[in-house]
Amino acid sequence: MKINVSKLMITLFMIVVGIVFLLPFIWMISASLKPESEVFTYPIKWIPDVWRWENYATVWSRDFPLYYWNSIKVTVITTVISTTVSAMAAYGFSKLEFRGRNALFIVVLATFMIPAQAILVPQFLLYMYLDLFDTHLGLILLNSFSVLGTFMLRQFFVGIHDDYIASAKIDGANQFTIFRKVAVPLVLPAISTYAILRFIWTWNDYQGPLIFLRSDELSTIPLAISRFATESGQLFSLTMAGTVSAILPLIIIFLIGQKYVIEGIAMGGVKG
């Protein structure tokens, strides 16, 4: 059997790159299960002599479950609202005919060019005026409307042939029924991909909670990890245990939705 040398070299190169990217994650898991005295030993001891599961028990015995619940609540609600709003807006900008549609879409896209940091002060003042400061509702509203999501999903809705829409209208369906039963199923991989991305972005959001939350009992995981690292001082084993606990939902969400992510990328590739 003839061996394709170039393909073999590329495969080996990709395996080495993959291992390099995985090493920090493996070190983090290893450090979370070590006694503090072994965290920075050199050469690195990847497998601890004594597995200290107590590190996780110590982390979870604090207020970590409360912060976890706060992050889950904010992230799930934000993802549902943002995905729904972005999909409906994308459908409107791609399939509904109304005066000024393209001009309005350009205005929406133009807001994407404004750096998020540039509008922090107006947002802060507005939240103070509306009494949304230091509330989870304010944090949810902050990330519930996405120009990127609208733009991304619009490109997929544009690809739906107009004959599908026309056929549904002939059968008596209104626009909401067409959106729900015809358009959404056709672009479901793209919507799922955006939902997973929105979940990851919201779960990892540090800037929003840092600026718009003050009460410790409302803190989300990124804030809690930051404060936990400060309170624990040099206890890196506990900090790593908290960090490993924090990323578990992201891994679970990706494993569940990776099929849709791959299909969404494939759809984008076909569209060119």
Automatic annotation (TrEMBL):
Subcellular localization is given as: Cell membrane
| Keywords attached to this entry | Cell membrane, Membrane, Transmembrane, Transmembrane helix, Transport
Recorded protein name is Carbohydrate ABC transporter permease
Q: Does the keyword Oxidoreductase apply?
A: no
How does this protein lie in the membrane?
Multi-pass membrane protein
Q: Where is the ABC transmembrane type-1 domain?
A: 68-257
Alphabetical GO biological process terms: transmembrane transport
What the entry lists under InterPro entries is as follows: MetI-like, MetI-like_sf
- This protein's GO CC annotations: plasma membrane
Q: Would I find Transport among this entry's keywords?
A: yes
| Assigned protein family | Belongs to the binding-protein-dependent transport system permease family.
Q: Where is the chain membrane-spanning?
A: 12-33, 67-91, 103-130, 136-157, 178-201, 235-257
